[in-house]
Amino acid sequence: MLLNPPPADPIEKAEQEPRWSEDTRKVAGRTAIALFAVLLCYHTSLWTLMRGLTVDTPLAYLGLVPIIAAVLGYALARPSITEPNIHDRHIDRIVGVPLVLAAFASLVLLPARLSTMYWLYRIDLLTMPLFVAGVVALAFGVRMLWRTKAAILFLFLAWPIPIRGLVTLGLEPLTGLTAAAVRMVVGVIPVATVMAGDGITFQVAHGGAQGTFLVQVASACSGANGLLGFLLVASAFTLVARGTKSAKFSWLAAGTALVWVFNVIRIVAILAVGKFFGETASIDILHPVAGLFTFNIAVLIMVLQAHRFGLTLPVFSGPSRTRAVLAAVPTAGRAMLGIVVLALLGSVFNHNLTAYDPISSSVGNPRVGKFSQVSLRPTGFRGERVGTFENGKRFFGEDSSWVRYQYAALGSSQLGSDVPVLADVINTGKLQAFSDFGIEACYRFHGYSTEGVKRVDLGNGVVGTVLNWADPDGLAWTTVYWLWAVREGSGLRYERVVLLLNDSNAARVASPPLEDSIARQVGIRADEAVRGAQSGDVTARQDELRTFLVQFARTVIQSSADRSAQMPEPVEFGG
To answer: CA 256, CA 422: separation in Å to the nearest integer?
Structure first.
């Protein structure tokens, strides 16, 4: 008796259909929509990473992380032969929906909650992998999410904060080591003379005294750029390569050493070209391309020599990706529609992050100068220092300062007041101190009554708070305050700026109406709803004073950003 063989398991079915079959086109289209959704939702975040590739800094290579992660995800997407063909769409939703909603909520709520600290710590890049993981689970199933987990986790390397800290710690020793190696080489090959002093400056003589120029092995020449770039590329390679952990570690260590040696060779080559062909050939022609050339050569050598370390490239064979996806998620129309709609909404809030650019760089370095440097000449006003308070040191640290400024209107703009605006500015290195000793808590401690507490958009990504308060004697004030990070030399400090306007009946103010970003207002109001904050009603007079003070705060912040842009560029590691 002849029996018909059972149908083959779709997961185990080999890729015998045409390369661009209907199923393949279906999965390719779904993949394209998923990629489009991620790019749409995080377009500003990704653009800031890609923009960094044009900057000659160690963190520039972080722009490669999303590209490497995408390639890595494709390589890891193929299922293994032993993978069971068991799928549950409910689990896909249980895992995927919370992930995409958490990422979306962070784009909406956290900029309003954290103000400029959101960009300073690049929370958007920290939550982007959550959105990607949710999209993968909903579009392709949790088994695909598990297969590509290494690629999604790799996206966390785009978060610049921990890497910036490591670079900061290692840059100076690496620069010294590189300069020492160059000194050793030029001691044998006399293409330059070491200048007395710091040991990182070399004099190159070409054609007499007029052709002499100096080359300095500064931090940009330390090799940190190439080392970080190699570690990013090489770590992705080790995730797909076959071999023992010790073999992979040995290969990484050898590659790191080779990249550094090639960087030393690059510097010596620049010195040699300068000696024989002059400064133009050395600095203007060779220097811009030598780093990329030596880096690529070093990476190519390590890839070609990987087999000597016991590493082999995987053979990409096995069950079809297409069959695996369709077996797990035969149809995903509603899921993809929901993802695209959420990505479209998220893109609006992600685009708002461009407002932070004048305040902080894309790797979280503050761009705004100290208040005393950049904030005393807003349009239509002039500020001057009128007092200091020493009793704040026990609250905000011994290195803190508390200075009061007074602004007077010049009568030359639509924004004006016939009473002075006071600004209390506390500068400290301890951000937590502002949470420990908050404004509202301080007012309540002193017996002041507060009302109309409300978060407001102050422009350039700064979110502040406006409130009205009165002391026990009935003296009433309107206050607007905000926090931000400022640069002081090459360091970072934090400032809390508190603007105060006396609610005298005789005070006269003039202000244009407030114009708010709809997306920013949605974020602020949503955050207040989540926190259960209630601002309460204010009188028409209070609303007039609040409108003026908010508009004045926006003017101060915009003026501070404009003046900071005219200051010398801060030393930073990217963005």
So the answer is: 55
